[in-house]
Amino acid sequence: MNAPELIRIGTRAAPMAAFQAEQVAELIHKHSPDTRTEIVTHTTEADLWQGDLAKLGGKGLFTKEIDQMLQRGSIDIAVHCMKDVAGDKPIPEGLIFAAYLPREDVQDVVLFPEGSEHSTLDDLPAGATVATSAVRRKAQILRDRPHLQVERVRGLVGNRVDKLDQGEKGWSAMVLSLAGLRRLGLEHRAEQALSVDEMIPAVGAGVIGIECRRDDAPVAGLLEQLNHAKTMKELTAERVMLHGLRGHCNSPIAGHCVTGPDGQLVLRGMVFTREGAQFVHAQHWGEASNDPGTLGARVCADLLRQGARELIEGIPH
């Protein structure tokens, strides 16, 4: 099969998203030197909205308009952060994820204003405010440190860090992803790394997915050469769990699958109330079949038996 002459790469216009698209373009050139690439950026409705994304329809809006461009044929592939891809809806008609890149660091990290005397969350006094974008982070911070206040914040990461330093919001700390800071050259601002035991990552954290049209065989064939099999298995387990929980991007759900030295998959799932006061947790191994879909369904069923649906819907126990 002949390689495509040109691949138009669709992405959000945000700096971090554009960086990811450049990364994909470099990989395409490496595997198919004669294929030209063109990056097509688009500012989505979700990028422009400064309020709570749940009121607009959730984080899935970050991907919806890019997917529509792909369906229309105005781009050839779409590059998405998999943590932004909704788990309660099917992939849009006619599209497939043909490749997942190797997973990046999934850790969350804590930043403090420049010149702050604090260097860990445990240093903060009662009532101090921690800024973060995710329900998942808010719930886990309050679960372990109920004496703190957590304020949800949106916007470009660079702008958020500037606001932290300027002190206009009165934030004492901010929690962000390490991978995101690295893409922006801001890794040096991370003061405290939170282990995955302290802060279970979001489903799909650190994974870049590449989507194309199902019937575009030349592009799909090239993308398959970029696919990282280990990441795909781990992500499949996480997303099967998320789908079974009917979790959307504003659900207080965390999930993280890893592959042990023996090749055995291990999946941890957690569902919280939004304030972190109640939670359910499940962890299972792949066992004999080591099938990621079976593993995701098993963890999902365990969480549902413990009352995960009520926690997601905000129904008190």
TrEMBL record:
Gene3D superfamilies cross-referenced by the UniProt entry: Periplasmic binding protein-like II (3.40.190.10), Porphobilinogen deaminase, C-terminal domain (3.30.160.40)
Pfam families, per the entry: Porphobil_deam, Porphobil_deamC
InterPro entries referenced in this protein's UniProt entry, alphabetically: HemC, Porphobilin_deaminase_cofac_BS, Porphobilin_deaminase_N, Porphobilinogen_deaminase_C, Porphobilinogen_deaminase_C_sf
Coiled-coil intervals, chain numbering: none
Record's catalysed reaction(s): 4 porphobilinogen + H2O = hydroxymethylbilane + 4 NH4(+)
Top-level division of the source organism's lineage: Bacteria
Leading EC class: transferase
Residue ranges annotated for the Porphobilinogen deaminase N-terminal domain, each copy included: 7-218
Residues annotated as domain Porphobilinogen deaminase C-terminal: 234-304
Enzyme nomenclature, EC number: 2.5.1.61
Cofactor: dipyrromethane
Keywords, alphabetical: Porphyrin biosynthesis, Transferase
Family indicated by similarity: Belongs to the HMBS family.
Biological role: Tetrapolymerization of the monopyrrole PBG into the hydroxymethylbilane pre-uroporphyrinogen in several discrete steps.
Protein name: Hydroxymethylbilane synthase
Gene source species: Streptomyces blastmyceticus
